[in-house]
């Protein structure tokens, strides 16, 4: 039955998706054309890019992370500076969209994710004041997309479950979508209900160790790790972390896997660990914890995305530990280095059309919820009629 004032089909909407991940290296931006076609969302990518943070801003963000203290003055400045950086990225997105867009969706920059020792999420803070984005583009902005899920009893992460469940709905068997950012997370599609959770560190400890050793942001292409040997005494200590045995849904971040954490573990190793061996061991940690999670979920295929897939040493270690195909998401139509920005665009599109954006089986929320807050653009805020029902699949169209 078609309900008055509700729609089953929509006109195409050009959404700019923005996010900066836990690596804090810059703002990912994607321009995406989305349209609801019955129970399917048609998705056409118009382009994606990364706009690096200014060096000083990235250093300030990293310095504000736990266990450091961040004053109200620092938080205000960072919220403004990140908002301005996101506004710059949104203008790049307008160019990617051919000079015209309808909406911006921002997942912001996570600065703190409050999870109690028992695994209960109590709050989450994403900065990047959306007023700067609206002012620069004149477009309405959907932002603060995680908080409602947390208020509903969820983890607020990983939200990518909604994209993965729609995108991989027609794949046979159990497919695991893997994202390797600062934190690695998986979505399990093909069972009774989608499941998603953070498996543990992705690049977070690797990048931290690389910076401590070389002063650079990362171990590019895993070159240093490739010269080292896995220290199994260190690996055993790392794997003893209780997070890996906590039941899903669960989430984590740099509040836990940070410099103090790494220093504490290294202090417990009987003999010193040199740089190459440290990076080799941390690479193995990520591969091992991800592979263990994929096997536990009965994965028949793994589709990987995120910055970690650009590390051939990490990807090879993961493939060694899995006896199922490990694809890169580009092979199924979504760019590995732009997938999370596409997620942001999808979340904004869902909110804009009155549809829920969380997946309770993935986050642990008490039920489906519409996500985010909307900041008006240059003109009056005019939302379209809400959609009749939730979509069941997402079809990626050729660009």
TrEMBL record:
It holds the Pfam family AnmK. InterPro entries: Anhydro_N_Ac-Mur_kinase, ATPase_NBD. Belongs to the anhydro-N-acetylmuramic acid kinase family. GO terms for molecular function: ATP binding; kinase activity; phosphotransferase activity, alcohol group as acceptor. This is Anhydro-N-acetylmuramic acid kinase. Coiled coil: none annotated. Pathway: Cell wall biogenesis; peptidoglycan recycling; Amino-sugar metabolism; 1,6-anhydro-N-acetylmuramate degradation. Keywords: ATP-binding, Carbohydrate metabolism, Kinase, Nucleotide-binding, Transferase. The lineage of its organism: Bacteria, Bacillati, Actinomycetota, Actinomycetes, Pseudonocardiales. ATP binds at residues 21-28. The gene is anmK. Its EC number is 2.7.1.170. Residues 378-399 are annotated as: Disordered. Residues 390-399 have a biased composition (Basic residues).
């Amino acid at each position: 039955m078609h309900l008055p004032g509700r729609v089953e089909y929509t006109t195409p909407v050009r959404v700019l998706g923005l996010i900066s991940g836990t690596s804090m290296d810059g703002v990912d931006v994607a321009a995406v054309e989305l349209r609801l076609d019955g129970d399917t969302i048609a998705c056409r990518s118009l382009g994606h890019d990364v706009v690096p943070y200014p060096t000083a801003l990235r250093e300030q963000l990293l310095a504000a992370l736990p266990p450091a203290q961040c004053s109200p003055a620092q938080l205000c400045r960072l919220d403004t500076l990140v908002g301005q950086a996101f506004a710059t990225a949104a203008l790049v997105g307008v160019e990617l969209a051919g000079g015209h867009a309808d909406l911006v969706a921002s997942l912001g920059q996570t600065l703190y994710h409050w999870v109690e020792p028992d695994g209960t999420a109590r709050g989450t803070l994403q900065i990047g004041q959306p007023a700067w984005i609206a002012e620069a583009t004149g477009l309405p902005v959907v932002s603060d997309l995680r908080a409602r899920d947390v208020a509903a009893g969820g983890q607020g992460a990983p939200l990518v479950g909604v994209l993965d469940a729609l995108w991989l709905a027609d794949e046979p068997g159990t497919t695991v979508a893997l994202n390797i950012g600062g934190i690695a997370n998986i979505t399990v599609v093909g069972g009774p209900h989608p499941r998603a959770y953070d498996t543990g560190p992705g690049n977070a400890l690797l990048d931290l160790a690389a910076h401590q050793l070389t002063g650079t942001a990362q171990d590019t292409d895993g070159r240093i790790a490739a010269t080292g040997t896995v220290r199994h005494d260190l690996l055993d200590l790392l794997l003893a972390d209780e997070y890996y045995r906590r039941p899903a849904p669960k989430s984590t971040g740099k509040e836990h896997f940070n410099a103090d954490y790494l220093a504490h573990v290294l202090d417990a190793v009987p003999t010193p660990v040199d740089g190459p061996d440290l990076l080799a061991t941390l690479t193995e940690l990520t591969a091992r914890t991800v592979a263990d999670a994929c096997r536990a979920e009965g994965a028949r295929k793994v589709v990987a995305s995120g910055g970690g897939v650009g590390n051939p040493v990490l990807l090879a270690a993961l493939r060694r530990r899995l006896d199922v195909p490990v694809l890169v998401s580009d092979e199924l139509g979504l760019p590995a280095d732009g997938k999370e920005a596409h997620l942001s665009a999808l979340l904004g599109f869902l909110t804009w059309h009155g549809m829920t954006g969380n997946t309770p089986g993935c986050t642990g929320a008490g039920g489906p919820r519409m996500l985010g807050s909307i900041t008006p653009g240059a003109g009056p805020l005019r939302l379209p009629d809400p959609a009749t029902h939730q979509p069941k699949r997402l079809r990626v169209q050729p660009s």
